Amino acid sequence: QSALTQPASVSGSPGQSITISCTGTSSDVGGYNYVSWYQQHPGKAPKVMIYDVSERPSGVSNRFSGSKSGNTASLTISGLQAEDEADYYCCSYAGSSTYVFGTGTKVTVL
Amino acid sequence: EVQLVESGGGLVKPGGSLRVSCAASGFTFSNAWMTWVRQAPGKGLEWVGRIKSKTDGGTTDYAAPVKGRFTISRDDSKNTLYLQMDSLKTEDTAVYYCTTLSYGSLAYWGQGTLVTVSS
After folding, report:
1. A106 part of contact set with chain B, CB < 8 Å
2. What backbone torsions phi and psi does residue A107 show, to the nearest 5 degrees?
3. Quick check: helix, strand or coil at residue B91?
4. Which residues from chain A sit within 8 angstroms of residue B109, using beta carbons?
5. C-beta atoms surrounding A98 within 10 Å
6. With 90 as the cut, is the pLDDT of residue B102 above it?
7. CB distance from A20 to chain B under 8 Å?
């Protein structure tokens, strides 16, 4: 199972919106609505930001939103803030009771 | 408050074995599906495997790189999840996290435990 493809880095100025893509195949992202997104600050454990493609856990800012089209899922961060600077990973169910993560994207707030 | 606390990491030689544990609290552990995720130093996240609750069969599934070498188990009486790692390779060096699994969401994570495989 190959890792899902994410851009290595995305940057934006405070207040701007950015979008991170996560490209897989019809066997993972395209085949199931079990895509989730995780934020990881340096030295910390990941934190779920979006699950089931577009659902937001309680306590997560509504500046974070998720979507999916075909084999590509996306995470959008609107109103970018300094605290959003972190690594972001997508994850998808890949069938046969397995999961696959994305390659990870470093978000930089300029 | 949900808490997951991993322990048991350390230095082990290639070909050796190690068991790491994850103590759970703040939720009904026996009903939870649990996973292990690892992260090699400076690298991305990698799904290792999953165990269902006993009421859902208690079955396990593993990622290809660890299948046949790693075993996930649980002791619901102790609210503890285990990862037995055998025939360890240098490429297994990573921080190992335990997480809860609910449908597609890894909702809660421990702080991780570092396993280093080196001679």
Report:
1. no
2. -100, 125
3. helix
4. 45-47
5. 18
6. no
7. no
Would you list the DSSP string of A2-18? PPBB--SEEEE-TT--E
Which residues, at least 6 apart from B99, have a Cβ–Cβ distance to it below 8 Å? B4, B34, B35, B36, B37, B106, B107, B108, B109, B110
Tens of each residue's pLDDT in chain A, 110 residues: 799 999 999 999 999 999 999 999 999 999 999 999 999 999 999 999 999 999 999 999 999 999 999 999 999 999 999 999 999 999 999 988 899 999 999 999 99
Q: Position of tokens 């605290």? A: A83
Q: Is A16 on the interface with B (CB under 8 A)?
A: no
Q: Which residue matches tokens 């055998």?
A: B86
Quick one: how far is CA B37 from the chain centroid?
6
